[in-house]
Amino acid sequence: MMNSRGSFSSSYPFFLFFLLFAINGLILISADDDKISGSTRLELIHRNSLKLSGKVGFDVRPKTQMENFKQLHHRDVLRRQNVVSRRRKTIETAASVSMPMHSGSDFGTGEYFVEAVVGTPGQKFLLVADTGSELTWVKCKYENCGRRPECLNKPLDKTVLNADHSTSFQTVPCSSQTCKSELSDLFSLARCPTNASPCAYDYRYMEGSAALGIFAHETVSVDLTNGVKRKLGNVLIGCTQTVQDDQGSFKGADGVLGLGSGKHTFTARIAEDFGGKFSYCLVDHLSPMKQSSYIVFGQNRIQTPLSGSIQQTKLVLGGAYGSLYGVKVSGISVGGSLLDIPFRVWDENLGGGTILDSGTSLTFLAEPAYKAVTAAFDKFLSTQEKLPADGGPFEFCFNSAKYAESLVPRVKIQFADGAVFEPPVKSYILDVAPQRLCLGFVAGSWPGISVIGNIMQQNHLWEFDVEKSTLSFAASSCT
Predict the structure, then answer these.
(1) Which residues are catalytic?
(2) In DSSP terms, which residues pair with 218 in a beta bridge?
(3) Which CATH superfamily is domain 90-297 in?
(4) Looking only at Cα atoms, what is the longest distance across the chain?
(5) CATH number of 311-475
């Protein structure tokens, strides 16, 4: 997911960014503990998973697959935001952190959740794992009650972080330079009733939802892949006391795990101890809950069977992309033919560019690229019965009665340094309703940034090396 708020260079147009919670399914990414040592894992759970049954916000499921895609598209579009550049600080180590993930297609929603243990004593929360966000926050209760018996004897609320009960919870003073300067990009507020008052934030999203609370430093407990448990201290979090969510953007989530490349993200903090790499492998977004994998932070790549060679391309960090993970795309081919797409569509310095975002479900192509792709598919699939639009996000749909995968031309996304990403057909021909298949690309604005969403990323290993500014990837079953 992309950071839902931030400032983008004024020379760049308002572009498509997608609501903080459009990750298309929590997935357990499995890691081999015998092969990965000294790493930490967090469990990622798809918001549709049966494991989440009974949690508030998870009991109302889309009635149809098309309704699900409409909701995903709605959340994706609401992620149109600007981004702030960040500096990154990382330290190489041999250890890694592994956090389990679960696919939640059973609930028909589009997020990937990670299970995180926050505070002392620890409380377990389901956080949206979002490569497009900077702020890590949890729903939280803070009364500044201290450690007095009358405070500690109050009943605990298991659905929120009980900050007054956590011995590791330390607020950021509003009078500090951290609040006044460093956190201004994360929307810290100027008000400061007293020097000791906590630094407050009002983190608002484009569609009107918001998270309001105070900044603090906390402890996050993680598991290493060698079986050792570790407490990660001094993690900047948002203690969100008020959630304004008329659109249902935060349904089922206890908060957000900010995985962007910014200075105050979870990835930046974990890099101080484990190095600036993380990897994940997204199973099919329709996979049942029992299929699982992990997101691994550190020098050890997630262990998953590969069905192709590992390729590498350049990550473009900072500048026009801010804390997002940009890539240098040079073109798209359909059926072996390179499409006629103006180069400026892929150049972030000319109003275009491309990012990978685990928090956006669908893949958005800037208008010139979208038109070229759909025109190519129209030619290849001319024998298929085209279906009229039905109000969903997809414009190119056809009857599945005579469908055969062999009829579908292969899509390849080519990178400027020679790497080629070839997603499986099921990642761009989507089964959205009975007898209705749709081309899974969505038109983006132009000028504007194209976004490779998590459905397109599925069944591939992805390794982000922030220190070396490289992205490695390979086809995989992710099991």
Answers:
(1) 130, 357
(2) 235
(3) Acid Proteases (2.40.70.10)
(4) 75
(5) 2.40.70.10
